[in-house]
C-alpha cells in the first residue's frame, strides 16, 4: 500500500466518522452499565447517552476518577460531541454552569435544554432557541416582555431557578 493510498483510507474513515452517531444506554435495570471501550471514538463523532443517572452527572461535574467520567473526558478530547438525554426529574441535578459552559449538549425527550449567559434575555435570544425546547434561567436573569411572548408562542418550557446552585449545593 502506498502512502497516498493510506492517506486516502484515513481521510475516508475520518469523513465517515463525521456523520456517524451512536446512542448508548447508561443504565440497564436501574444499574449503571460498564463504560464502553474508547475505540468507539474512532468511528463516531456524535454520541448520545440515554438514561443518564444523577450519580454520573455528579461524578462528571466533580471530575471524579470513574470509568464513565474518564470515558466521557477522553471522548471530548477526541472532539466527540456528546448529548446527554435526561428525563425532566433529573434536570434539577444539573448544575447551571454545566448547562451553560460545558462542551456537552443536554436534551429532555429529544428536545434541547438551554441556559443563556445574558442578564436580560431578549426576544432575539429566544428566537435562536429551537421551538419546544427547554430554557433554564436563574432569578438574576430577566426576560423582556417580547421574550416572554416568544417563549409562549414557541412553546419553550421555562424552568426558573433561584440561583446557579443545583440540588446538591453550590456550583
Could you please describe the fold and organization of this structure?
The structure is a single chain. The protein has 171 residues and is α/β, with parallel strands linked by helices. It is built from six helices and eleven strands. Helix 4 links the parallel strand 5 and strand 6. The longest helix is centred in the first third of the chain and has 17 residues. It starts with a helix and ends in a 10-residue tail after the last strand. The relative contact order is 0.11.
| Main pleated sheet | 7 strands, mixed
* Assembly annotation: single chain
Number of helices: 6
The number of E-state strands comes to 11
Strand order of the largest sheet: 1-4-5-6-7-9-11
Shape: globular
Structural class: alpha/beta
Distance between the termini: 53 Å
- State the share of residues found in helices, binned by percent: 25-40%
Strand-residue proportion? 25-35%
In N-to-C order, the SSE pattern is HEEEEHHEHEEEHEEHE
Whole-angstrom Rg: 19 Å
Mean pLDDT value:
92
